[in-house]
Amino acid sequence: MRIARGRSFSFCVSLFSAPSSPGILHFHSPTFSSSISDRFPSKRKVFRSREESSDNQLYKSNTMDSKIMQFERNNSNVDDKHPCVWSSPEGGQMIDIGKQIFCNRSLNMRNIVAVGFDMDYTLAQYKSETFESLAYEGTVKKLVHDLGYPAELLGWSFDWTYMVRGLVLDKKRGNILKMDRHKYVKVAYHGFRELSKEEKVATYGSTLIRDAFDEPEYALIDTLFSLAEAYLFAQLVDFKDNNLGKIPADYSRMYKDVRAAVDLCHRDGTLKKMVAKDPQRYINEDSSIVPMLRMLRDSGRATFLVTNSLWDYTNIVMNFLCGPRSAEDCSVLNFDWLQYFDVVITGSAKPGFFHDENRASLFEVDPESGMLLNTDNGTPMPQVDSSLRLPLKILDKSCQVFQGGNVGHLHKLLSIESSSQVLYVGDHIYGDILRSKKVLGWRTMLVVPELEKEVELLWTLRETRKELQLFRYKRDHIEDQIHHLKWSLRFDGKNSVNNEELLSELDKLEEGARLSHQEAQRECHQKFHKVWGQLMKTGYQNSRFAHQVERFACLYTGQVSNLSLYSPDKYYRPSEDFMPHEFDIVSL
């Protein structure tokens, strides 16, 4: 680049070295001396003060966090086979970060009189590598044999690590999206092909009216059970694009067929029959569940179970979770697990269950025979033929088992006076948490199994993330310098041709700063997941999934049994919220 004689220009941009992307941008001419920092010493001083303050805050925070985490790790019980329940003599210790319960809204457990649980993916944590693969294989077979899809699908395999919760499927376009809390699309794939920034903007960012990204045009992947169907949908999109004519249906129809195939697997019992034959293959054992339930009941609280599964399957799963651990006894079904609950409601048809105006009948279930008996709002009704009512010989009469009904029936059975007295624990952000929170005002706890590994990785990468934060501060400062220099050159009025060259070079420098920062950030996110990054983040913003968790879950944690590590009378308090104008001033 040529510079006119008689004029000098000196400019040096030093980018903060990212964890794996050192970036130094130099632009210098010995014949011109024009330094933005010399022209604006006050700006330089302000930035330096802010930077030093940030460094100091980060150092203090890191020092304090290191001591706390070391204490936690030294004192936490990491032996899952022998859980250290809070009520035990060894309880009450500091809790490892991966086992902690996190609080969005203050919750005083002294005000809770009943604690309820979902079963599937809450008490019963299914193994992704076996259960989701089973669901995938069953769905593929239904597509081929029942819905007429090409036989090539039978040779496909399932990568259970590829998809994550919080994604959105664009049924019309065959795209899979990850959005931030403002519903801006940050990561997008068409099948398994990543969309460029230009494609994302053209498709989702250039409309006059913002898209809501809701049903029926979109499908929300908010449960672990949905991951297999999302992966299969991506495979079908690629197959359709690469094999013209083999699948005549459009993308929307393909997704509808996938959902129909999943429903067929549920209706004919394909999945549950396999789980019932060998629960240990498909469900994780958790020896903390029984101590947790026992501690809650000993504290004077009622416990209940509300599940969409029917009684026969519920009994098998709960026997596995709460029954004897010996190999000889685990195959024998009994009803001992009912002693840990006051009320069990099966076939609840959530989320409709949470609407009091839902007129679904409530039937009592005879556990031994599975027979449904008529009730009047939970009170047994006289039988015309008394011989039809089977005697409940071996059951603990303190627990009642029902099917159907609605939340009004449950409140009456438990003598609930205020909905805020109920804490409900589930895994489904819509089916369990949103409805019970918005419609009823129940207190809620969301189980996020992926959270345990995520927070542990966050701790491992804490220095990297602090460096990225400083990188972002310095990038902002560098861009301000470049913008001011460009402004000066544009209105200098001398050697306009040479100025245009300088402006072009500054544009390249600014773009280089942006790309270096984005690449460092991308590398950090890929350590959480190669494709979708961190579950709770999209760039520097909370992800759509994290936003839903924050809005509707009073508490959230990785495993339901983490409740056993805390006092049943604990007062959960959230961390302080910060607005952007407060963060650098008052955050630790």
Oligomeric status: single chain
Unreliable parts: 1-82, 391-395
Classification by helices and strands = alpha/beta
**Side-by-side strand order of the widest sheet:** 3-21-18-17-5-11-12-16-13-14-15
CA-based gyration radius: 29 Å
User: Could you give the count of β-strands?
Assistant: 22
Question: Distance between termini?
Answer: 47 Å
The largest sheet is:
11 strands, mixed
Q: Please, how many helices?
A: 17
> What share of residues is helical?
40-55%
Q: Give the DSSP E fraction (strand runs of 2 or more residues).
A: 5-15%
Mean pLDDT: 81
Coarse shape: globular
Cofactor: Mg(2+)
Binding site for GMP: 120
Binding site for Mg(2+): 118, 427
Family: Belongs to the 5'(3')-deoxyribonucleotidase family.
Main attributes of the structure:
disordered N terminus; five-stranded antiparallel sheet; 40% helix
Mind explaining what this structure looks like?
The protein is of the alpha/beta class and about 600 residues long. The protein is built from 17 helices and 22 strands. It has an eleven-stranded mixed β-sheet. Strands 9-8-7-6-10 form a five-stranded antiparallel β-sheet. Helix 14 (about 460-490) runs antiparallel to helix 15 (about 495-525). The longest helix is centred in the N-terminal third of the chain and has 35 residues, at about 40-75. The chain is globular and about 105 Å long. The relative contact order is 0.16.
Summarize the entry for a quick read:
The protein is of the alpha/beta class and 588 residues long. The chain is 40% helix and 14% strand. α12 (429-440) links the parallel β17 (422-426) and β18 (443-447).
